[in-house]
Design goal:
Keywords: Glycoprotein, Glycosidase, Hydrolase, Signal. The protein contains four helices and 39 strands. It has 581 residues and is mainly beta. Bound molecules: 2,5-dideoxy-2,5-imino-D-mannitol (DQQ). 2,5-dideoxy-2,5-imino-D-mannitol (DQQ) binds next to strand 1, strand 5, strand 15 and strand 20.
Length: 581
């Protein structure tokens, strides 16, 4: 199989390649292995769930599930990186390692909470000597260390054990950030299987160390059997209106319960019923296929945190590799994080919106822009950049195309006619990917498909399409956004689905549909309708290896669309460094 370092993302977070530092005693052992297999020197990195993200004393901390010894899951510890801008990172030594009976088999996912007196604490799941899942706490060894390098385990871990009726000790993990309950005591929720069904179990504590289980879950559902990585937070409409959980919740705020299941991150919007100390969703959907998703693509185990620096809530999600595990070993790394996103409530309080944090724009370099482009059915408009700098580095055949492997594209489509929109069939909501497979970019609709083709090879044999289709449903319009990976690569043994998500738009008011796509080598991350639908995807085109990829705007619908504004920027590589000592 073709494996290349060209698939390594330039600005999506991942730990730097983990080279053994010379002081490591195993270095000499490994050096013999080098003679046999070069790969062994470059110890592979496997990173997974974002853990305990937080902003503390001017530094953003990103922890993550991390296997320092290989590029597959196992020996899991908490990797630790720090940043001042969420884009450029310094990798530190792991913050939590497998050193006690209550986490000897893995330091699994958890969250940070900033306690009274501005004291951070992490509660995380440990896989103990009997492979039970228990909840442990660690505190910084020295809060005046700006990097919070060292974390100390008190000897009374585990704080919470999977005992109690109906609990499954192997389905009891991923404690949330704490919040203050109606009685002034701390709360956390833990993902669990309770009597065979999924639950966010509720615990309360006065001192954040001694916990007792509340006699009912925060929320539970018979529609699924287990929730991983729960998250519970309050939201308001408006991008910079993030809410920390330890303050009184203002009027107009809603609560969100997010859970990971079915390889997706889903969420419900509702209220935190203070009287009953329980989450009550605004609508209960028996069929979990209809639950809203944070992201309709390759995105899992997300965690949000309140960023007190800019008063916003930020969500981090993990995106795995979709090549083969032997490729991952050959590549030497596996697992990235999606771009950190600001997350907030739509003005109609019916859905969440997300947008790449503004700091990502600091990586923008060459800009190309175009206004008022008319796209008739069958039109394909190539987006070319004049990127001499990048071209000189990579000496690509056509300098205009050098910048397309790392790009940020914003394009909005003005609809010329919406009356002819095809009728919407609600059954599509039960399997949106099936609909995206059937109604692909080559199938003419009345309004759409129109959108972008990215990472396309010269003859279009390889290409990834991100496009919209407009449907009419009684008095409203349903917009389908697809990210179709089926022709993304000539390579086989890849997972290449056609992802899809629907969002509602009032096209009577506003006849423009916007799309933003971040292209980062093997990552294509798209935001439709101003962040109403997000689709993160992984692609491994062969064309990426010889740096000859093209980008187009297209329309394959019967009615014309006008590209009101198109802007594309080449994106610089983010800094990722190792910090010694
Ligand atoms: N990954 C962790 C678990 C979590 C899962 C283990 C989600 O704590 O439930 O690495 O990807």
């Amino acid at each position: 199989s073709i494996v290349s370092s060209k698939y390594r993302t330039a600005y999506h977070f991942q730990p730097p390649k983990n080279w053994i530092n010379v002081s490591d005693p195993t270095f000499f052992f490994l050096s013999f292995k080098i003679l046999i297999n070069r790969q062994s020197f470059q110890i592979c990195d496997y990173s997974k769930d974002p853990n305990g993200p937080m902003y503390y004393n001017g530094i953003y901390h990103q922890f993550y599930q991390y296997n320092p010894n290989g590029s597959l899951w196992g020996n899991i510890v908490w990797g630790h990186s720090i940043s001042t801008d969420l884009i450029n990172w310094i990798r530190l030594d792991p913050a939590i390692e497998r050193t006690s009976p209550s986490d000897i088999n893995g330091c699994w996912t958890g969250s940070t909470t900033i306690l009274k007196g501005h004291q951070p604490a992490i509660i995380y799941t440990g896989a103990d000597t009997q492979m039970r899942q228990v909840q442990n706490i660690v505190f910084p060894k020295n809060v005046s260390d700006p990097y919070l390098r060292d974390w100390i385990k008190p000897d009374n871990n585990p704080l919470i054990q999977p005992i109690g009726q109906g609990l499954n000790s192997k389905q009891f993990r991923d404690p949330t950030t704490g919040w203050i309950g109606p009685d002034g005591l701390w709360r956390i929720a833990v993902g669990a299987e309770l009597n065979g069904y999924s639950a966010a179990l509720l615990y309360k504590s006065e001192d954040f160390v001694n916990w007792t289980r509340v006699d009912h879950p925060l929320y539970s559902s018979n529609a699924s059997t287990m929730w991983e990585c729960p998250d519970f937070f309050a939201v308001l409409p408006g991008k910079n209106s993030g809410l920390d959980l330890s303050i009184a919740i203002p009027d107009g705020a809603k609560h969100v319960l997010k859970m990971s299941l079915d390889n997706c991150d889903k969420y419900m919007i509702g209220v935190y019923d203070l009287k009953n100390d329980a989450f009550v969703p605004d609508t209960v959907l028996e069929d979990r296929r209809l639950w809203s998703r944070i992201d309709y693509g390759n995105y899992y185990a997300s965690k949000s945190f309140f960023d007190s620096k800019k008063g916003r809530r930020i969500i981090w999600g993990w995106t795995n590799e979709t090549d083969s595990s032997s490729d991952d070993v050959a590549k030497g790394w596996a697992g990235i994080h999606a771009i950190p996103r600001t997350i907030w409530l739509d003005s109609n309080s019916k859905q969440l919106l997300q947008w790449p944090v503004e700091e990502i724009e600091s990586l923008r370099r060459e800009e190309v822009s175009r206004q008022g482009l008319e796209l008739k059915q069958g039109d394909l408009f190539e987006i070319k950049g004049i990127d001499t700098l990048q071209a000189s580095f990579f000496s690509v055949a056509d300098p205009a195309r050098g910048f397309l492997e790392q790009a940020d594209v914003e394009i909005d489509f003005e609809l010329t006619s919406i009356d002819s929109a095809d009728p919407f069939d609600p059954s599509w909501l039960l399997d949106i990917e099936k609909h995206c497979r059937e109604a692909d970019a080559s199938v003419h609709g009345s309004v759409g498909p129109f959108g972008l083709v990215v990472l396309a090879s010269d003859n279009m044999e390889e290409h990834t399409s991100v496009h919209f289709r407009v449907y009419k449903s009684q008095a409203k319009y349903m917009i389908l956004m697809c990210s179709d990976l089926r022709k993304s690569s000539l390579r086989t043994e890849l997972y290449t689905p056609a992802y899809g998500g629907f969002f509602e738009l009032d096209l009577e008011k506003e006849k423009t549909i916007s799309l933003r796509t971040l292209i980062d080598r093997s990552a294509v991350e798209s935001f439709g309708g101003g962040g109403r639908v997000c689709i993160m995807a992984r692609v491994y085109p062969v064309a990426l290896i010889d740096g000859s990829t093209r980008m187009y705007a297209f329309n394959n619908g019967t009615s014309n669309v006008r590209v009101h504004q198109l802007k594309a920027w080449s994106m610089r590589r983010a800094q990722v460094n190792l910090k010694k000592g």
